[in-house]
Design brief:
Length: about 1000
């Protein structure tokens, strides 16, 4: 792994100066290699220096990521399967003959056992975890053997051994993760007997020789293929590709390794002068240790390290997946010590030895270090407020029983059944109100919205509901809940502003024609200027000539939420509203709800409908500026609670066919560096630079401007789409295969090459939506500014955190679906909390704008904003208000960490002690983004957490800040990328191409 980083180099230069060395000495230690443009084809050389040695494969197995096969072993099978992202293999060789020899190149020889589906391009990776071949076939579960989910499977979960960290998978131990190294190469076509060869990187082989690896991971990189014949597109999804395993005597794979001389001299020792220990920013028992790669004078090179640690009287080896490979001589490497049962502030002794490419081990450096004593959990203070006692004795007014509920509670209109269900008496006594005391009790920060639901059971020809909190200087609104049909009955979803009286049932809501339970939503906005303390008001309900007045007690905390969002619930939109005269109301409604609409400005065919005109030399921004200036400058929101804040996120119109149409510049290839003309490459770069330069010139530096590729090659197969109906030659959105990730990498590099030197303060970010991030390896490290994970989980988040700690910090969000109206509105709130607790900076429901009048009748998850119907503008669903509640809760937690100087991970751990965030992703099919369902959290526990945190922040009385967490642009450098990709010592082989 290469670690070319400008910031690290500056730190290194400082270390060298104080140690009496010069930066010039460092540069002289290893001559700088010429930088090759990664968007162009890489030049290779062949043959390697030296003589070949034949080495048999001694053990092998394959694993499957597919459901139902993840725990299965295939170590006894006569074949190995390598099937794109779905199934991978691992092999090993006897390395004794290579000990002390300098590896200069290698070929893997393999015999195809699937004549109609040979292997094409293969990644061969070092491997960071021990594995057991096993003897099973047919994905049989076998005790102690390796499978996709475990290095050692066991039917007893307590005895199962993870690949690396708890919850890790096969891919976490190789292919760039776990400090592994990899390269790919094109395989030769099968000869008459089915034999193929593929080049293997010399360092990958040397890592096994040196004891820095446990074998060779194999991944077929094309995976799915496609063809276009007779004007018809066909997708060939992941054909089964087999090669014979070592159990097949006449077809066993073997490796041919070239060696060019010997190296018996140990590498230099790791210097204590270049070793640093960082505990700041790391939770208890963790630490980041950095040291400089020493030189090697024996003819090979320093390739990696052995590290052990002493804790008390126990000496143990550091797990291989935590130990870095070497960088160029004098460059820093980083080891994040985690996953081990160390205590806060504990002292351990490290022993670090350099290992060279022939297996020689340098003199050890022994260093005592102290681990972080920062608390792993920041405990929340116990709240001094409890829910009111349950009661079934509800007040009545004019034929209606009155109950006060949480905003996220839902009552079916005809039966009165609650979603979710609650204990008896909840309607009369809960965390918000007491029917016995006739008291509603609310809490709020300044610059916050709080809501509650009024449930009216019965019938009435005329009802009025008014909320008065004039004493607090608070703005109030009342909404009639409009009902939709669902599989759970008729439920409230659209929050329609209520002016005057309404009837129960409401005649204008045909879905609620037989309604006996109506809901009214009351909303309070507490301004920046409000004074902290307890203020009172009243809820007034009049029905059938009778009046009911319920006191409202509002506690205003002594702090304000920031105007600029620290966490963004992003309301994604495809082909619907834009910020024109009609659509601007949607953007304002989202802004009011502390969310942000982000509308994709192009379709599958690549045509950008909302884009400036481009003549190949310059853009004409005159019309585009008129349309977008209000939301990009913030002037469209000047009269709103978050005055003048621009939209938080904004899709750029760039895609694979804009501003330069792809059709005349693409040569059919699975690999982008081989596919495009220079005219296309340079034209796209010019367009990127011109556009970002314009934003800079206008001073519109507030939003995150996202270059996002959305289309998928297999759309071409859809009815009435065809070749030009989708401009994507790869699966850009939710990529699956290495070819897809590699294409995303190519466009990201091209974008950064064009704009990084000129963007200034403009947040021009490269974004990818990746539901299968666990198959992405480190292909997008240093290229992607922000990932959007679909079906996010702790394993994916861990991979991202490792990237941020060990390489360069970037961001991630989670995407999925908004909850269906038939389900609990707890989901949007808890999703925000769960995503934040993992480190995400936002959530994104994939489609949010209702497009049909029928949405008012038939509840659909994608209608978070209702189109106008008898209203002046669009209408918010209560689910949109739940997303706002989740966003505000995240602001509470962010402020808590800020004012108490606590790590986000510690605050998140405290959150999990108070709220059970366990969720499960529900999918209707494999490509579904999924909806998270939470079964173990309720409105009361969320309220208790909010009250405890609010009281703790208020005790500190923090001054208002417009921004609490600024999301600065990642610092990336396209000349400083992981050393991945093509094997450079490889025979020339034409890559496989689409037919």
């Amino acid at each position: 792994m290469r670690w070319y980083r400008s910031q690290q180099f500056l730190r290194l230069a400082f270390v060298l100066v104080i140690s009496g060395l010069s930066v010039g000495c460092l540069l002289a230690a290893e001559p700088a290699k010429p930088i090759q443009d990664p968007t162009r084809n890489i030049k290779t050389t062949w043959p390697p220096e030296g003589e070949p040695v034949r080495l048999a494969v001694t053990r092998d197995t394959w694993v499957s990521s597919m459901s139902g096969e993840r725990n299965g072993n295939n170590g006894g099978a006569p074949t190995l399967k390598i099937k794109g992202y779905q199934e991978m293999s691992i092999v090993d060789i006897e390395t004794g003959p290579l000990k002390g020899k300098i590896v200069t190149g290698a070929l893997l020889h393999m015999k195809s056992s699937s004549p109609n589906a040979p292997v094409y391009r293969i990644t061969v990776s070092s491997f960071a975890a021990p594995w057991t071949e096993g003897t099973a076939t047919g994905y049989a579960e076998q005790e102690g053997s390796s499978c996709w989910s475990f290095a050692k499977f066991s039917s007893d979960p307590a005895k199962a051994v993870p690949w690396t960290f708890p919850g890790s998978l096969f891919v976490d131990a190789g292919f760039g993760l776990g400090h592994t190294i990899w390269k790919f190469a094109d395989a030769t076509a099968p000869d008459s007997d089915g034999w193929q060869t593929v080049a293997v990187d010399a360092d990958v082989v040397a890592a096994r020789v040196a004891g820095l690896s446990y074998g060779f991971g194999l991944w077929e990189d094309i995976g799915s293929e496609w063809s276009y014949k007779n004007d018809k597109f066909k997708m060939i999804n992941n054909p089964n590709r087999f090669i014979y395993s070592h159990e097949q005597s006449n077809g066993a794979p073997w490796m041919e390794v070239w060696v060019g001389g010997a190296d018996i001299q140990a590498p230099d020792a790791v210097s204590e002068k270049g070793l640093t220990v960082q505990t700041e920013g790391y939770p208890a028992g963790q630490v980041m240790v950095t040291w400089l790669t020493p030189g090697d004078q024996g003819g090979g090179k320093t390739l990696g390290f052995n590290v052990s640690y002493k804790s008390g009287d126990q000496q143990a080896q550091m797990p291989r997946y935590l130990i870095p490979m070497a960088g160029p001589v004098g460059e820093p490497v980083r080891m994040h010590i985690q996953d081990l049962p160390f205590k806060a502030g504990q002292e351990i002794t490290l022993t670090i030895s350099a290992v060279d490419s022939t297996g020689n081990v340098g003199k050890p450096l022994t260093k005592a270090i102290k681990l972080s004593d920062k608390p792993a959990v920041f405990p929340f203070a116990k709240g001094d407020i409890e829910p009111f006692a349950p009661s079934t004795d509800l007040p009545e007014v004019g034929g209606l029983k009155v109950a006060i509920l949480d905003m996220i509670d839902k009552v079916e209109g005809k039966t009165g059944k609650m979603i979710p269900e609650h204990e008896e008496g909840y309607k009369g006594g809960n965390h918000l109100w007491s029917a016995k005391k006739k008291l509603i009790r609310l809490q709020s920060a300044k610059n916050e919205f709080v809501c509650f639901m009024v449930n009216l059971e019965g019938k009435s020809p005329s009802v009025t509901v008014k909320l008065d909190l004039a004493e607090a200087g608070a703005a109030t609104k009342v909404y009639r809940m409009d009902y939709v049909n669902t599989g759970a009955g008729v439920v409230p979803d659209a929050a329609v502003p209520l002016a005057g009286a309404m009837a129960v049932p409401f005649k204008g809501d045909p879905e609620a024609a037989e309604q006996t339970n109506a809901c009214v939503l009351c909303e309070v906005y507490v301004s920046h200027e409000a004074k902290a303390g307890v203020v009172t008001g009243s809820l007034q309900i009049a029905s059938a000539g009778q009046n009911l007045q319920i006191p409202v007690e509002l506690t205003i905390w002594d702090f304000a939420l920031p105007n600029k969002l620290s966490f963004v619930p992003e309301m994604n939109a495809y082909g619907t509203v834009g910020p024109d005269a009609h659509g601007l109301a949607y953007y304002r409604l989202a802004h009011e709800h502390r969310t942000c609409i982000n509308r994709l400005p192009y379709g599958w065919n690549g045509e950008a409908s909302l884009a400036p005109k481009w003549d190949g030399k310059a853009f004409d921004f005159s019309e585009w500026d008129k349309q977008y200036a209000p939301i990009l400058s913030g002037s469209a929101f000047a009269d709103m609670p978050r005055k003048g804040e621009p939209v938080d996120v904004f899709y750029l119109p760039f895609n694979e066919s804009w501003p330069v149409p792809i059709w005349d510049h693409y040569t059919k290839s699975y690999w982008p560096e081989d596919a495009f003309t220079d005219e296309y490459r340079e034209g796209m770069k010019k367009g990127y630079a011109e556009f970002i330069g314009h934003l800079k010139q206008k001073g519109w530096t507030g939003p995150q401007y996202q270059f996002f590729l959305n289309s998928k090659v297999y759309y071409k197969e859809y009815p009435n789409v065809g070749w030009k109906g989708s401009s994507a030659p790869w699966i850009f959105d939710e990529p699956r295969e290495t070819q897809d990730f590699w294409a995303l990498r190519w466009y990201g590099i091209l974008f950064h090459q064009a704009i990084d030197r000129i963007k200034g303060d403009v947040k021009a970010w490269y974004r990818c939506d990746i539901s299968r991030s666990d198959y992405g390896r480190n292909t997008l490290w240093g290229v992607m500014d922000v990932d959007y994970f679909g079906g996010s989980n702790d394993q994916k988040a861990r991979q991202k955190h490792d990237e941020n700690r060990l390489y360069k910090p970037t961001y991630f969000c989670e995407y999925g679906g908004a909850n269906d109206p038939r389900t609990s509105n707890i989901a949007p709130v808890t999703w925000c909390l769960l995503a934040w607790s993992r480190g995400a900076v936002g959530v994104l429901p994939w489609q949010t704008i209702g497009e049909k009048a029928s949405d008012w009748s038939n509840g659909v998850s994608t209608c978070v904003f209702y189109m106008p119907k008898d209203t002046a503008g669009p209408v918010a669903s209560v689910r949109l208000k739940a997303f706002r509640r989740g966003q505000q809760d995240v602001e509470y937690l962010t402020l808590l960490g800020d004012v108490y100087d606590q790590l986000q991970s510690a605050v998140a751990a405290g959150l999990r002690r108070n709220v059970n965030l366990t969720g499960r992703v529900i999918k209707t099919h494999a490509e579904d983004a999924g909806i998270i369902k939470f079964d173990r959290v309720d409105a009361t526990s969320l309220w208790k957490m909010r009250c405890a945190v609010g009281k703790m922040i208020s005790a500190k009385k923090p001054a208002y800040r417009r921004v609490v967490r600024e999301l600065a642009s990642p610092v990336l450098d396209m000349n400083d990328l992981p050393d991945i990709g093509h094997v450079t010592v490889a025979p020339k082989v034409d890559p496989a191409r689409p037919d």
